[in-house]
Amino acid sequence: MAEQAPPLPETLQITFTHHGTSHSFNFPPESTIADLSNRIDNELSIPTTNQKFLISPKLGIIKPPFTDPLPLRTLQSKKIVLLAPTPASLASLAPPPQPTTPTLKPAAPTRHRDWQKTRDEATYTFDTILPLTYLPNPARSRQFLERLRDDPGIKATMRKHKFRVGVLTEMNPAEHTTHESRTLGLNRNRGEAIELRLRTDAYDGYRDYKIIRDTLCHELAHNVFGDHDRDFWELCKAIEKEVREADWKSGGRAVSDEVFYDAEEREGSGAHVDGGGWSGGEFVLGGNGGRQGASSRIMNRREAMAKAAEERMSRQRDAGGGGSGASA
């Protein structure tokens, strides 16, 4: 009777080392090296693709994929070393997490800056602002003059006509007031300096800004024409219109009830030169004869009508009562 083979053990134990640590796993008798690899993946979290076995003696290094069904029972008497990185070392090799890209707001369109306009405004302007420090509250006078300098309408006409004024200053009312007239503005040497009457005659306040701005328009026209002839009045009227239309703060509209004399009414007025070296023209309110006057001579409506009536009566007297005169 033939001898029967001894029964296979119910389990077999495989021992291996990994980075100096010994591990032992039990397997069914028919298990292969692929089962050992899967067990290591599950138990030690080392993926199969990272596993290599150094089996000695004789077998050497076994690499994945473990397609050769090498029985584990043949390895029980051998030394098995698992050559694989630890899970911690694998984690250290992983790329760092990428920072979350913040949501970027769409870039606001860059406002186009007109550099030519910027250069022109720096060139065609008032080089010096000069209030009279010996009069009360010169700081307010400076603010008034700076407001005129920075007025959008004034800046636009300065650029258009290439006006450049050396000094913009205020006028002492006491020095330019007589019983018959009040000088509102002076221009010296066609733009060397412009002097404006900012204050009331009693020094207790300031005149209306629009009136002073129209005076400045008159004086700017004297940068080109000294005499109050037709050419002067046409330029003065054009400057006044340009300033009003370019004043975006007021919407390009007149904002008061002032009455403006037409250039035709003012034509023929001679240039006024005072004894203090000023030349090129003055803006005078209330001059003799009614026809001596200024660009944009401003009165309220009642005063304008009364003035026109006086002139009409004067012309009628001179003509011996004949003729109808100019209408108000």
TrEMBL record:
InterPro entries: Ubiquitin-like_domsf, WLM_dom
Biased composition (Basic and acidic residues): 300-318
Region described as Disordered: 91-114, 284-328
Bias (Gly residues): 319-328
Location of the WLM domain: 117-314
Superkingdom assignment: Eukaryota
Listed Pfam families: WLM
PROSITE patterns linked to this entry: WLM
GO molecular function: proteasome binding
SUPFAM superfamilies: Ubiquitin-like
PANTHER family xrefs: DNA-DEPENDENT METALLOPROTEASE WSS1 HOMOLOG 2 (PTHR47795:SF1), UBIQUITIN AND WLM DOMAIN-CONTAINING METALLOPROTEASE SPCC1442.07C (PTHR47795)
Name of protein: WLM domain-containing protein
Taxonomic classification: Eukaryota, Fungi, Dikarya, Ascomycota, Pezizomycotina
